[in-house]
């Protein structure tokens, strides 16, 4: 994709280069001392020797990032769709494993903790089924929505979020469709903050800063299994519920497209151990999961 500029991170016997911020640090560290990305991810990427593409999965807390990413990885690894994917490194299986295990038990995975050292990372080799040699190495952490919100308010609260976004060759931005329908104003404000943050990360300095970035951005309305209007026409849904965000995308992103996804075929209402009402997914029926990534990969 257009903006992934760096080469694959290098390792020497005693040092490794951070896959996110390119800081060189001693191998015995667990995390990059500058941006706190896990050293294991940098080592595995370096061993592959292929330059990775970052695809960031971002959105507010509860947008469905963990569920989407877990389901996407599971579908890629099953090899039944138009894209194929193989995870690299045992750490890459954690998000998929947790999501699928939870869904099998008719529940959803836990909320992602806000501490950066708790985030699960994924390094996955993805290629179109029809062009298996056209491999793209995708790297992404499963970020916590609360941490993204804090980073939008106070830049560099989470240096790793900034590093990952700056390095990204494509973005998957998720919003909860039911939330957008019921409280579009709140989602729109988050969306506008996000667009201006992203625009700043990609714009750079200098006289051409008014130009739109070419980094492709796929906007996904999740949970559209319970919001048919989002599934029917995601772009029109976005304009009706989040007009400020749509304008921001048009102003700053030359390549953006709206999608809708959902993984639930049917669900029941249950009560958890704390007495809280919870959705229980009885039947999993993924829709619209692969298409956004497929579109992003076509922009490479
Ligand atoms: N109906 C339906 N509900 C979903 C779907 N995906 C997620 N949910 C619901 O949304 C909740 C939040 O999903 P997560 O994937 O944990 O959200 P997240 O964006 O990772 O949230 P943080 O970890 O807090 O950033 C889940 O617990 C489910 O209740 C979906 O496809 N359909
Ligand atoms: Mg999560």
Q: How does this structure look, described?
A:
There is one protein chain. The model is unreliable at about 1-5 (pLDDT under 50). This protein has eleven helices and eleven strands. It has a single domain, classed as P-loop containing nucleotide triphosphate hydrolases (Rossmann fold), CATH 3.40.50.300. The longest helix has 20 residues, at about 185-205. With about 300 residues, it is an alpha/beta fold. It has helices at about 40-50, 65-80, 95-105, 145-155, 160-165, 175-180, 185-205, 230, 235-240, 245-250, 290-300, and strands spanning about 15, 25, 55-60, 85, 120-130, 135-140, 170-175, 215-220, 255-260, 260-270, 275-285. The strands form three sheets. The protein has a seven-stranded mixed β-sheet, sandwiched between helices. Strand 1 and strand 2 (about 25) form a beta hairpin. Helix 2 crosses helix 3, helix 7 (about 185-205) packs parallel to helix 10 (about 245-250) and helix 9 (about 235-240) crosses helix 10. The site of magnesium ion has 5 residues, from helix 2. Guanosine-5'-triphosphate binds near residues 65, 66, 108 and 279.
Observed structural traits:
binds magnesium ion, two-stranded antiparallel ribbon, Rossmann fold, 300 residues, alpha/beta, 37% helix, disordered N terminus, seven-stranded mixed β-sheet, single chain, binds guanosine-5'-triphosphate
